[in-house]
Amino acid sequence: MSRFTKNFVYETEFDGDKIKVTFSQMRRKNMLALTPFMKTIDKEIKVIVSAEQQVEFMETAAGILKERIVNMSGLVDINGEPLKFTDIEESVYFTPLFSDLLSELMQRSTLSNEQVKNSVGPLNEHSEA
Questions:
Q1: Burial class (CB within 10 angstroms; exposed 0-12, middle 13-18, buried 19+) of 1
Q2: Kind and range of the H or E element at 65?
Q3: Cα 106 from Cα 45, distance rounded (Å)
Q4: How crowded is residue 60: how many other Cβ atoms within 10 Å of its Cβ?
């Protein structure tokens, strides 16, 4: 049985708030949008941005997060008012949160190398094509 789920929940902390985010899985177009900022290093995908690319990267990340966040709760402003993603998507203040959320979204939307190795191949040695 596949372990795939259409949506998944991630809980994190940011600036004293405990945030709960429900994501839908990343799509190929989302990963393609990130490829200009990515480089493979030691079998892990790391996001590499120069000072010039940072704003463009955050714009891309915000667009992907806006599309993939199904629900977000727990993030509040200084007056205790709940904030939605649309309230924060343009703010540089939330850059570390965006990075955290995007990293989790990418990890949970793809199989690890070990999972791929255990997920593909013939059913048994005598399988016919």
A1: exposed
A2: helix 51-68
A3: 10
A4: 17
How is residue 3 annotated by DSSP? -
Residue 46 has pLDDT above 80, yes or no: no
Measured distance CA(50)–CA(56) in Å, rounded: 10
First to last CA, the chain: 21
Residue 35 is predicted with a pLDDT of 86
Q: Is 18 exposed, middle or buried (CB count within 10 Å of its CB: 0-12, 13-18, 19+)?
A: exposed
Give the whole-angstrom CA distance, residue 52 versus residue 116.
Answer: 35
pLDDT at 115: 58
Distance of CA 16 to the CA centre of its chain: 21
Tens digits of residue pLDDT in 82-111? 999 999 999 989 989 998 999 999 989 987
- Angle at 97 (CA atoms; ends 94, 102), nearest 5 degrees: 125
Query: Which has the closest alpha carbon to 22: 66, 69, 54?
Result: 69
User: Could you give the 3-state DSSP secondary structure of residue 99?
Assistant: helix
Residue 24 CA to residue 4 CA, distance in Å, equals 11
